[in-house]
Design brief:
Blueprint (H helix, E strand, L loop, with lengths): L2 H18 L22 H33 L5 H13 L13 H17 L5 H8 L5 H25 L10 H10 L15 H41 L1 H11 L2 H7 L4 H21 L8 H5 L6 H5 L5 H5 L11 H37 L2 H7 L7 E7 L2 E6 H21 L3 H33 L12
Antiparallel strand pairs: 1-2
Helix pairs in contact: 1-2, 1-3, 2-6, 3-4, 4-6, 6-18, 7-18, 8-15, 8-18, 9-17, 11-17, 15-17, 15-18
């Protein structure tokens, strides 16, 4: 019998038992409940459902591997390993036999149910070989197997949290000492039995850091694409809604010859320098309005203690949150705080660039429709214009000049600055960056649970024992 035989049966049983206790194990891999086929189902819904099915299968595969790794050493102690593995498979896969107890909730109850299931299998042992070996060690096998199964569950949950944080650019939150402590203490990677907890060798720790760095870099294009898409849709719409006066002023300036003669006659390098300066000043104005709670910029993205559990419900840490674990809300370390600040600044830069980009596109489209070559030359005070593209369509001349490009870009930069100043209003600010802040707070909340579980496991305490502690 292979490891996958009993591990597969145990994984299916544990997932079912967790679901009956409202513990969202592998929930992040489950995808939406929308069926993959049928009338009235959108193509996007079917695609999301298929992706959810694949992710759920991958999650169960990871749980099977973790169970095989954690349960294997316990099975190795049996006098007849093959017979004991066969009994485990029958215990967790037999139809119409023992079923997950639905009487309670929480990780402690899940562990107790696993122990009860195993004990029931031993009670049905007609050969007596397992009972004889259990007499020598009362914790074997029910207690040790229950602990091993819960360690595998926490391993999969922690790996899911790490992947979730990596996909959002939180490098400093994923290669910290918590994961190294957890893998050294629970999985015994180095097999060091010294008191005080084993420690990973330097090369293994370096491999952990390299693996997390590679994962974050691999997710970076997706993170940027999602952020830019959000900025090009909701962010720009919010900018148009909250700053109509600013748009009217920008359009008025666009029609004046003074703006064309000032901005259109500048050198390219000077225009680029001015745009960068406008972006920097816009960011300064925006972050100057950050909430002072917790210390300026970081205080705006740190979740409140009372909101941590709710925010973690949308992350893979929902398993711990639903089980009643108490998160470690001590805040972030220096490197982790700089990581969070860097992501926040990058997201806001993307949002401001999106507002400026669409504003410039709109001004250039307006200029193409309203100004032919002679009008643009008149706005420039009969100065020479550099024609980049020219086409006559249905008797109308469309001319795109470098002056039109520079004027549109500069006015878009001024629009971004004006918009940043308007974000000092609390409601406008919340509508502009509320989604970004909530997503970051969800990530940090998941990390609080991750850190608490890792430290308790490193001390040899099952996370279920943390439920109710304050």
């Amino acid at each position: 019998m292979t490891d996958d035989d009993y591990a597969s049966a145990m994984a299916d049983w544990i997932v079912d038992a967790a679901r009956q206790r409202n513990l969202p194990l592998l929930r992040q891999q489950a995808g939406p409940p929308e069926p993959p086929h049928g009338r009235g189902v959108s193509r996007a819904g079917r695609r999301a459902a298929r992706a959810g099915e694949h992710a759920l299968a991958a999650g169960k595969s990871a749980l099977r591997a973790a169970l095989a790794s954690a349960v294997g050493p316990v099975i190795a102690r049996a006098a007849s390993q093959a017979q004991f593995a066969q009994r485990l498979r029958e215990c967790f896969a037999a139809p119409g036999g023992l079923h997950p107890d639905r009487s309670g909730q929480g990780a402690d109850d899940l562990r107790a149910a696993i122990g009860t299931q195993i004990a029931g299998s031993l009670a049905a042992d007609t050969d007596g070989w397992a009972a004889q070996q259990a007499d020598a060690d009362p914790s074997w096998p029910a207690g040790q197997l229950a602990d091993a199964c819960m360690s595998a569950v926490h391993q999969v949950t922690m790996d899911s949290v790490v992947s979730y944080l990596q996909a959002r650019g939180f490098l400093a939150l994923t290669f910290g000492y918590y994961k190294i402590q957890y893998k050294a203490a629970v999985l015994r990677l180095d097999g060091d039995p010294r008191p005080g907890g084993p420690r990973l060798p330097f090369l293994k720790a370096l491999r952990e850091v390299s693996a997390n760095l590679s994962a974050v870099l691999g997710h970076l294009p997706t993170l940027i694409r999602k952020s830019m898409w959000h900025a090009l849709t909701g962010t720009t719409v919010e900018a148009l809604r909250t700053a109509p006066a600013m748009l009217a002023v920008i359009i008025f300036l666009f029609l004046t010859s003074d703006a064309w003669q000032i901005f259109g006659s500048e050198a390219i390098w000077r225009v680029i320098s001015l745009l960068v300066l406008l972006l920097v000043v816009s960011l300064i104005f925006f972050f100057a309005g950050s909430a002072p709670r917790g210390g300026g910029l970081i205080g705006e993205i740190l979740p409140r203690r009372r909101d941590v559990r709710e925010l973690a419900q949308d992350t893979p840490a929902a398993f711990w949150a639903q089980a009643g674990f108490v998160p470690d809300c001590r805040g972030l370390g220096r490197g982790q705080a700089w990581n969070a600040k860097g992501i926040y600044v990058a997201l806001m830069i993307g949002n401001f660039l999106a507002v400026g980009f669409l504003t410039a596109i709109a001004l250039m489209a307006f200029g193409l429709l309203a100004f032919d070559g002679s009008i643009q030359a008149h706005l420039m005070g009969l100065m020479h214009t550099n024609v980049l593209w020219k086409r006559t369509i249905v008797g109308h001349q469309f001319v795109f000049t470098s002056q039109l490009l520079m004027v549109s870009a500069m006015l878009a930069g001024i629009a971004v600055l004006s918009f940043a100043v308007s974000l000092q209003v609390k409601d406008t600010r919340a509508a502009f960056c509320g989604a970004n802040i909530r997503d970051m707070q969800s990530c940090i909340s998941a990390f609080y649970y991750y850190r608490a579980a890792a430290e308790q496991l490193e001390k040899g305490i099952q996370p279920g024992a943390m439920a109710g502690r304050r």
